[in-house]
UniProtKB/TrEMBL annotation:
Protein name according to UniProt: N5-carboxyaminoimidazole ribonucleotide mutase
Catalysed reactions, as listed in the record: 5-carboxyamino-1-(5-phospho-D-ribosyl)imidazole + H(+) = 5-amino-1-(5-phospho-D-ribosyl)imidazole-4-carboxylate
Record lineage: Bacteria, Bacillati, Actinomycetota, Actinomycetes, Frankiales
Entry binding sites for substrate: S22, D25, R52
HAMAP family the UniProt entry points to: PurE_classI (MF_01929)
Pathway noted in the entry: Purine metabolism; IMP biosynthesis via de novo pathway; 5-amino-1-(5-phospho-D-ribosyl)imidazole-4-carboxylate from 5-amino-1-(5-phospho-D-ribosyl)imidazole (N5-CAIR route): step 2/2
Organism annotation: Protofrankia coriariae
Entry annotated with the keyword Hydrolase: no
Amino acid sequence: MSEISRNDPNARSPKVAIVYGSPSDAQTMSKAGATLERFGVPYEQVSVSAHRAPRTLAEYVGELAARGIAVVIAGAGLAAALPGSVAALTTLPVIGVPITGGALDGMDSLLAIVQMPPGVPVATVGLNNSTNAAVLATQILALSDPGLRALLTAFKDDFEKAAAAGLEEALA
Ligand code: RP5
């Protein structure tokens, strides 16, 4: 698996795999890692191309569930085959992040990721919105983790407080 450089920023066993098609996607996908860190969710991140290294991808994805990964976040641009390819190779939930760039500036990526055939879903978030991918991954993990659920409740409460404060300011 030499094409994969696995970067595990956590000491604990990763629960989420963040996968992207090229090192050029790393900055966009870094918001996913930052958000998972905010919730204390251990993760790993790898760059592997569905088009350029399909056998490497299949080998990596085939081992994810056995290694304890519960959710995959997959981001790619252009003809973004990666999230769908991952979904084809695993029964783990896959969250896709379409990435802007190229002649069509992300429309190609968005449609490639969202338009999966019945039976092979990719839960697609907005263009470049790897933050939402990480929040959704955390919500999936929280189904069986009351501590994470409490953190998510506090996270949403912060939105409510900020919105209420803004309203009070506007009415003052
Ligand atoms: C996609 O093509 C990658 O996900 C990236 O978004 C885009 C450009 O890749 P590079 O040419 O920078 O490797 O496969």
